[in-house]
Design brief:
The chain is globular. It is built from six helices and seven strands; from the N terminus they run H-H-H-E-H-E-H-E-E-H-E-E-E. It folds into two domains: 45 residues; 131 residues, Glutaredoxin (3-Layer(aba) Sandwich). By secondary structure, it is an alpha/beta fold. It has a seven-stranded mixed β-sheet with strand order 2-1-3-4-5-6-7, sandwiched between helices.
């Protein structure tokens, strides 16, 4: 119906050319603007963030995970670390107490598995992002730990339920401080 009404109107050829030219310019401008926006987003998607080299350097570290042969959640944490890009060496051992003592994990921060990465000890179900942060920031500490086995932490997932938990840093002398909060 609109087309019939439009066609029944008598417009001068000059008027039609002007309107068609204007409509063409608008369409061309929108197309070019869309292409420019797409190019900018493509550029930002393929450019590396400022800290990307640091993240890549962090992921270049091999992590050695010491775990009990009967612990399935440790295997799930290993899969979490691999999915984040870490190279994982899986060391199954019967004497986790000796490993924790060897690497100086404070008794109040112990969990089921102990990981060594670079000069740091990573105890328990710590998110890969926290391990990356540790390796990028290189704080003067012995390591980081999540005591126990909080539900919802990497390797301890249970549906949508997530227990709030804290990742603690610890020094060789046993001093602790919060490193990251996961709520």
């Amino acid at each position: 119906m609109f087309l019939e009404v439009f066609m029944s109107l008598r417009f001068s050829p000059q008027f039609l050319r002007t309107k068609l030219l204007a409509a063409g310019l608008v369409a061309t401008s929108l197309t070019l603007a869309g292409c420019t926006a797409a190019t900018e987003s493509d550029r930002s998607a393929t450019s590396t963030p400022q800290n990307a080299p640091s993240v890549q350097a962090a992921l270049a570290h091999e992590v050695t995970v010491f775990r009990s042969p009967t612990c399935s959640c440790c295997g799930q944490w290993i899969e979490h670390a691999k999915a984040a890009g870490f190279k994982v060496k899986d060391e199954v051992t019967e004497d986790m107490g000796a490993i924790k003592q060897q690497y100086g994990v404070p008794e109040n921060l112990t969990s089921c598995h102990t990981t060594v990465v670079g000069d740091y000890v990573v105890e328990g179900h710590i998110p890969a992002e926290d391990v990356q942060r540790l390796l990028i920031e290189k704080p003067n500490i012995a390591g980081i730990a999540v005591p126990g086995m909080p539900i919802g932490s990497p390797g301890m997932e249970s549906g949508d339920y997530v227990e709030p938990y804290t990742v603690f840093s610890f020094t060789e002398s046993g001093e602790t401080a919060p490193f990251a909060e996961h709520l």
